[in-house]
Amino acid sequence: MSLQKPIIGYTLGDQAGIGPEVIEKALTTLAPDICCKPMGKRITCTPGVPTRDTALAALEQLENAASALRSGEIDAVVTAPICKESLHKVGFNYPGQTEFFADRMGADNVVMCLTGQNLTVALCTTHVALGEVPRLLTTKKIVSTATILADFLRSTGIARPRIALAGLNPHNGENGAFGQEESRLILPALQQLQLADSQAIYSGPCVPDCVYREAVAGQFDGIVAPYHDQALIPLKLLDFDNAVNATLGMARLRVSPDHGTAFNIAGRGIASAASTVRAFELSWKSALHR
Questions:
Q1: How far apart are the C-alpha atoms of 185 and 225, rounded to whole Å?
Q2: Which of 79, 144, 101, 121 is nearest to 251 (CA)?
Q3: Sign of CA dihedral 219, 221, 224, 227
Q4: What's the pLDDT score for residue 3?
Q5: What is the pLDDT of residues 39-90, one digit of tens each?
Q6: Which of 20, 21, 115, 200 could hold 150 in an S-S bridge, CB 3.0 to 4.6 Å?
Q7: What is d(CA 81, CA 93) in angstroms, rounded to the nearest whole number?
Q8: How many whole angstroms separate alpha carbon 151 and alpha carbon 175?
Q9: For residue 33, how many other CB atoms are within 10 A of its CB?
Q10: What does the alpha-carbon distance between residue 78 and residue 68 come to, in Å, rounded to a whole number?
Q11: Are 11 and 17 in contact (CB under 8 A)?
C-alpha cells in the first residue's frame, strides 16, 4: 500500500456495456491527486453485444482486483457493471460482486450499502427471494449491519451518525397484528446498539413507509433496511444518477456505480458518469481516512 497517497483500482466490467465509457469519462473529471490504476486491459468487442469473451475479461479483472486488494497493491477498488447472466456461464458462482469480494477477501460479515446525495441505506439481506427474508433476518444481523454502517458513516466525516432501523412489516406490524419481527428482532437490536455504541444515535423500529422520507428531510444519516427492494426503490427514485454501491466490512473498500451495463445505449456516448465519479471520490475519501 502506498505510504503517501492511496491508489484506487478500477475494473471495466462487461466491456460490451457502458463500463469502459463511464470509467473513461470519470477519469477525465477526477481531481488530479486521485491516483487510479486499471485492473486489466480493453478488449475488442461490439457495443451492446455481450459475449463469452467479454464475460471472461470481466471475470479476469475482478480476480485481479481482489488479488490487488488482498496484497495492498491498491487501497480500494471501483468496479464497473457486470452482466451476471454472462458471468455465470463462465464460472462466476456468486449472486453479485458483493458476495464475490466477500469470499475473495475472506470477510465473513460484509454489508451492501447504497449511498447517494439524498439517502444512505444498508441492507440486512441482499439478493434473496422475498419469502426468505423473515427467516434470514436476525437480531445479530441487524446489529452487525448497523455497526458497520456507523463505522462507514464516521469514515465519511459524520462524527456521530444518526441511524434508523427500518421495520419489516407495514406499519411496523401494528403491535403484532400482522407480524412480530419488529418486537422480536428489531427492538432487541436497537437496545443492544444503544448499549454498545454511544458514538452513534440509533432509532427504531421505524415505520418503513415513513422513515425514508424522514431521512431525506434530514432526520437520519443512514437507514438499516431488512431487505433489498424496500431500500433500493426510494434510493433509485431519488438518487439514480449519483448513488453508488459500497461493500462494507472488508479491510479495503469496494465501490461500484449503482446502475447496470445498459447494453441498449452502449457505444453511443450518452451514458452518465456521475455515479462512477462519485464512486471514485468515495473510495478515495475512505482510503485517506483508513
A1: 13
A2: 101
A3: positive
A4: 54
A5: 999 999 999 999 999 999 999 999 999 999 999 999 999 999 999 999 999 9
A6: 200
A7: 17
A8: 32
A9: 7
A10: 12
A11: no
Distances (CA, A) of 25 to 30, 83, 93, 153: 9, 21, 31, 27
Query: Residue 289 pLDDT more than 90?
Result: no
CB 229 within 8 A of CB 123: no
pLDDT at 2 over 60: no
Query: Which of 137, 135, 114, 115 lies closest to 125 in space, CA to CA?
Result: 137
Contact 266, 17 (CB under 8 A): yes
Radius of gyration of the chain (CA): 19
Q: Say which residue the cell 407495514 belongs to.
A: 170
Distances (CA, A) of 269 to 22, 38, 156, 197, 217: 9, 21, 32, 47, 35
3-state secondary structure of 137: coil
Q: What angle do CA 114, 262, 31 make, to 5 degrees?
A: 60
| DSSP conformation letters of 23-71 | HHHHHHHS-TT-EEEESS------TT---HHHHHHHHHHHHHHHHHHHH
For cell 447517494, what's the residue? Answer: 116
Local structure of residue 290 (DSSP, 8 states): -
Phi, psi of 43, deg, nearest 5: -120, 165
Length of the chain: 290
DSSP SS3 for 148:
helix
Among 30, 36, 28, which residue's Cα sits nearest to residue 2? 36
Residue 77 makes CB contacts below 8 A (sequence gap 6+) with: 8, 9, 10, 11, 39, 65, 68, 69, 252, 253, 254, 255, 283
